[in-house]
Write a structure and sequence with these properties.
The complex is a heterodimer. Chain A is mainly α. Helix content of chain A is 78%, strand content 0%. Chain A contains 21 helices and no strands. Chain B starts with 13 loop residues before the first helix and ends with a helix. Chain B is rod-shaped, with a radius of gyration of 17 Å. The N terminus of chain B is likely disordered. Helices cover 62% and strands 0% of the residues of chain B. Chain B is built from 1 helix and no strands. By secondary structure, chain B is mainly α. Classes of the chains: A mainly alpha, B mainly alpha. At the A-B interface, helix 5, helix 9 and helix 12 of A face helix 1 of B.
Chain lengths: 568, 40
């Protein structure tokens, strides 16, 4: 990395963190520390909601996903705008009416303490573990591509975030997230422009799109009704709707963002802003990946983007086989490149017959090239048992480091660090507020002073932060646990959403009925996960529907004396 | 009601804003469908 890149990276990060700390200076009470003093306007809410969701993996993995699998991942976000509308109409007014610090406080006002604390516990479990992954996942890629120490990278990301989150609370988080999100958006626009400008001058943007489309990278919509297909129009609209409802409506890391708005109006506008901007932003990130793919149709790509693993594999007896595969890959690339040039020329001449014939040859050449890459991955896996050969996460950063000019490399590293920090900051702040409000203040120290709870929240923020960094530092030893954590989130969201939807409904259902229904629904979701290959997006629908249905049944069968007829 | 914290009223009605968000989604899906079919 050049001096200019270091200057851009360190200068921008220091400026953002400094600005956030400066905005959050001064003594804060509990409302100030946990809800940012209710001063945020809609644009701060909208950008901080987006920044909380956008982790570093969004920027590292999404372009790689488009490179390998095309634009179909965009369907995952189709339910989000609709969820923003429902949350604005149903959830927000109640949260603001009750002046809650956490979403789970609302559940006690509607049901009882056990339902509130069960839901808060599920959040702490899921979010507490995933905070470590939010640090670890980008750190492993950054350290591998840049040659940095993994532990030092984890400590740098975690240390800075812990410092400003403990110091400034929710206000520092929102203010830094706003700047971070603007940098992320600007960074991706710059990346897109620079990548397109790196295509050969003879290839128009239209031809670039045609080449991507020929190789299936622009197939954004899948109308399949097979529930095991992960991303389809239907799973995106329905499963994505329920997932977004659960994530934005009941996950404290998001709820805390919009509870810091100065009014319910600003909060609603912030969520609607998210609903309008999210799909274009994700499309841009996916498009960057598609353009990187087109770039590598004219420039030789590495046979494996995870170069560190490839280098390690070359130290084994498989070196000869890998060298032969690299040679075959190089020859396949030369052949495919000449076919791509022919297609581009046929497109310029508007020769329909030549275009059709050329498209077919390009597709055949791509299949041959992909087969060699697959064989290489297999050889690396055999050479290094347990090695990570899934290199999609490495494509974008590897491309940036090899091909982009000085300064732009620094800017894109800023984007990745900003994304990591904004997501972790939101999580730590939410974990601390839930621990203090739903457990510490509710069950352990009921009548302490405001200043005491602020101090406790700072200690809990630091504690969760240290846990996340420790988890990230040792995560490489716990590969199976990481997988479990990733699955954990989607297993719980449907149930949690179901509890909230029963709470928001006008049905006369009491705490015990919904508590039992939630536990039974969770068992159903775990059963579906273990016993079928249904895509994870559908777990949200199944969990939610089960809670709502079972709560009705439990309410009808439970003895009346346990639940007086009046509703809360 | 405590939720009546002073805040600027949006220029458009809430219903209009919700319709804009929903119809933008429809347009986006249509744009992806067009991209899908034009460049396949």
């Amino acid at each position: 990395m050049s001096t200019l890149d270091w200057f851009v990276l360190l200068g921008t990060l220091a400026a953002i963190v400094g600005y956030g700390a400066w905005r959050a200076r001064g003594k804060q009470d509990m409302a100030g520390y946990l809800r940012g003093g209710n001063q945020d306007k809609w644009h701060t809410i909208g950008l901080s909601v987006m920044a909380t969701q956008a982790s570093a993996i969004t920027f590292l993995s999404t372009p790689g996903q488009a490179y390998q699998d095309g634009m179909r991942f965009i369907q995952f976000y189709f339910g989000l705008p609709l969820a923003m509308i429902v949350l604005s109409v149903v959830f927000l007014p109640r949260y603001f009416q009750l002046r809650v610090f956490t979403a789970y406080e609302f559940l006690e006002s509607r049901f009882d303490r056990k339902t509130r604390q069960l839901t808060a516990f599920l959040f702490l479990l899921q979010r507490g573990l995933s905070a470590g992954i939010t640090i670890y996942a980008p750190a492993i890629i950054l350290s591998s591509v840049l040659g940095w120490s993994l532990r030092l990278t984890c400590l740098c990301i975690g240390g800075v975030v812990i410092a400003y989150t403990v110091f400034g609370g929710a206000k520092a988080v929102s203010q830094t997230q706003k700047q971070q999100m603007l940098i992320m958006l600007a960074g991706m626009v710059v990346a897109f422009i620079v990548i397109v400008s790196h295509l050969p001058p003879e290839v128009s943007f239209g031809n670039a799109l045609h080449i991507a489309g020929t190789l299936g990278k622009l197939d954004a919509l899948d109308f399949s009704t097979d529930p095991s297909t992960r991303y389809t129009l239907w799973s995106g609209l329905l499963g994505g709707f329920f997932l977004s409802m659960a994530y934005f409506g009941t996950d404290q890391s998001q709820v805390q963002r919009y509870l810091s708005a100065r009014s319910v109006t600003e909060s609603r506008l912030g969520l609607l802003f998210n609903g309008l901007v999210k799909i274009p932003m994700q499309s841009l990130i996916l498009f960057v990946g598609v353009m990187v793919f087109v770039f590598y149709q004219f420039n030789a790509p590495p046979i494996l983007f995870n170069q560190a693993e490839l280098a390690r594999a070359k130290q084994t007896p498989f070196a000869g086989k890998l060298a032969a595969l690299e040679q075959a890959h190089s020859a396949a690339f030369e052949h495919k490149q000449s076919e791509i040039w022919q297609l581009s020329r046929a497109l310029d001449q508007h020769d329909a017959a030549a275009i059709a014939a050329s498209e077919q040859r390009v597709r055949t050449a791509e299949v041959a090239s992909a087969a060699i890459r697959a064989e290489t991955k297999l050889a690396v896996a055999q050479a290094l048992p347990g090695a990570n050969t899934r290199d999609a996460d490495y494509i974008f950063l590897s491309f940036v480091m090899r091909n982009l000019p000085r300064g732009v490399v620094g800017l894109l590293l800023v984007v990745i660090f900003c994304a990591a920090m904004s997501a972790v900051a939101g999580e730590l702040s939410a974990l601390a507020s839930t621990t203090v409000v739903d457990f510490y203040r509710r069950s352990l120290r009921k009548d302490a002073s405001d200043a005491h709870y602020v101090r406790a929240a700072k200690w809990f923020t630091a504690g969760w932060g240290v846990l996340a960094v420790l988890f990230a530092t040792f995560a490489s030893l716990l590969d199976n646990l990481i997988q479990a954590v990733n699955i954990l989130g989607s297993l719980f969201y449907g149930t949690i959403l179901g509890i909230f939807l029963v709470a928001f409904s006008s049905r006369p259902i009491r705490g015990t009925a919904v508590f039992i229904a939630a536990i039974a629904a969770e068992a159903v979701v775990v059963g579906v996960f273990l016993g079928t290959n249904v895509s994870f997006l559908w777990y949200n629908v199944i969990g939610c529907a089960c809670v709502m249905l079972l709560a009705e049944i439990m309410q009808a069968v439970l003895p009346r004396k346990q639940h007086p007829a009046s509703t809360a | 009601m405590p939720d009546e914290v002073p805040g600027p009223a949006p220029i458009l009605s809430w219903t209009a804003l919700y319709l804009i968000v929903a119809s933008t989604l429809v347009l986006e899906i249509a744009a992806f469908a067009a991209l899908h079919w034009i460049y396949r």
